[in-house]
Specification:
Layout (H helix, E strand, L loop, with lengths): L3 H25 L7 E5 L5 H9 L4 E4 L2 H10 L6 E4 L8 H4 L5 E5 L2 H10 L7 E6 L16 H7 L6 E7 L7 H23 L5 E3 L6 H6 L4 E4 L1 H4 L4
Parallel strand pairs: 1-2, 1-8, 2-3, 3-4, 4-5, 5-6, 6-7
Length: 234
């Protein structure tokens, strides 16, 4: 159980994040409901996650498949929309695909093919985002920007997979100024791909606790927020 003090703090944090999202949307002159909050619950106790859901946060993200499997089982009574935001190894696709609303981190054609293979015919296509290494950091997963168009075109034959957009993380270096440049580059890449391929790519998953306001200014439709939601709860 979550005590009253922790629940009050959690609700306060959630309201602060929602207010910051609304402020960034207003500053950008975008429609009020254009950004989805994905609460990143990795390493967070299940009781706190349940309290977060009860506060109205229904889109939850996990970084590792095993953590997602565990939380999904422990919270199976709740109609949570689960997002896998971290790297997905091919040997974990079969168990992960049935549990998720979105896969944010698809970084190869082979992984797309595996997702297609394990997607059942009795559900709508699996919604995925192509992860792009927009910053060029060697330590990051993701497709090189120049290779995204090729994979996007090859994936059109996979009818159990729906590519809804792109995902990226900002550079580890350069602070907020560099982060905003990275977000702008991802948006520009998405716009170029739509223009060349004719494939609608409405979603941009970019922005985390430290920079989601900048991501929203550059067109993000999904922000992945963890630490700001859970400050003061440990």
């Amino acid at each position: 159980m979550v005590d009253l003090t922790a629940r009050t703090k959690l609700l306060h944090n959630l309201q602060c994040v929602q207010d910051a999202i609304a402020e960034a949307i207003a500053t950008a002159g975008r429609p009020s409901e254009c950004v989805r909050l994905v609460a990143v619950t990795k390493s967070i106790d299940v009781d706190i996650v349940r309290a977060l859901y009860e506060a109205g946060c229904t889109e939850l993200g996990e970084g590792r498949p095993q953590q997602l499997w565990s939380k999904h089982e422990l919270l199976r009574d709740l109609p949570i929309h689960w997002h896998l935001i971290g790297h997905l190894q091919r040997n974990k696709v079969k168990r992960t695909v049935p549990l998720v609303r979105y896969l944010h981190s698809v970084d190869s054609l082979e992984l797309l093919q595996d997702i297609h293979h394990y997607a059942t015919l009795d559900r709508s296509p699996v919604d995925v985002l192509l992860e792009v290494n927009i910053s060029g950091d060697e330590t990051k997963h993701g497709i090189a920007p120049a290779s995204v168009e090729v994979i996007l075109n090859q994936a059109t034959q996979l009818d159990r997979v729906r590519i809804d957009g792109l995902m990226a993380m900002a550079s580890l270096y350069g602070g907020r100024d560099q982060a905003r440049r990275d977000f702008a580059k991802l948006r520009e890449l998405r716009d170029d791909l739509v223009r060349v391929s004719g494939i609608p790519l409405p979603e941009l998953s970019m922005g985390m606790s430290q920079d989601f306001d900048l991501a929203i200014l550059e067109g993000s439709t999904m922000v992945r927020v963890g630490s700001r939601l859970f400050e003061g709860l440990s």
